[in-house]
Amino acid sequence: xxxxxxxxxxxxxxxxxxxxxxxxxxxxxxxxxxxxxxxxxxxxxxxxxxxxxxxxxxxxxxxxxxxxxxxxxxxxxxxxxxxxxxxxxxxxxxxxxxxxxxxxxxxxxxxxxxxxxxxxxxxxxxxxxxxxxxxxxxxxxxxxxxxxxxxxxxxxxxxxxxxxxxxxxxxxxxxxxxxxxxxxxxxxxxxxxxxxxxxxxxxxxxxxxxxxxxxxxxxxxxxxxxxxxxxxxxxxxxxxxxxxxx
Length: 246
Description:
alpha+beta; Jelly Rolls; eight-stranded antiparallel beta sheet; four-stranded antiparallel beta sheet; 12 strands; globular
């Protein structure tokens, strides 16, 4: 088994450092409006999202550089973003922070994220039930499919199955499969604190980002780490299922 066979699992990392959430959200509110992102691959400016973009997105790290003194303002958190996964600081290309907008409720848009390694964490999640919904692809892809966001996956080749991810802790690291699944954030009530983080590993970590994406160097180490974590947390792990007609 490899990480690509797993749709979701908590990761066996140290505990996420305690963080002053109000200070962190103040940092987001101050810097998000003035941050400029060239050639952005996120969907924050896509006008076709049926329920709007759920997050107040900001990049604490971009192009291998910390932004707006994040590493000085939140040093323990900045270190955790790489050390918890056995990586070095110079391996991390981007850190994308996604505080859920306070007014957002319902199911967000279906998507897969641009990074294939799928390393994530929650700094805070006050709604642990049905917080993240996952649909598996029909085909056992070994690289991220070129699904177009504009279709909102209505015509995408997905299985007629939906899984609900579960948390072992409201602050935890986890893995999400962006090659064999799509996912959508979900919330039933406004005004909750939920802050997700994407850790994007750059090419200078000598990773093979094309198929097979989990084949050598750190990529094999990360794949083994994901598999060990899924085996340690079997009550939470979700695996890619073969389609029912196979």
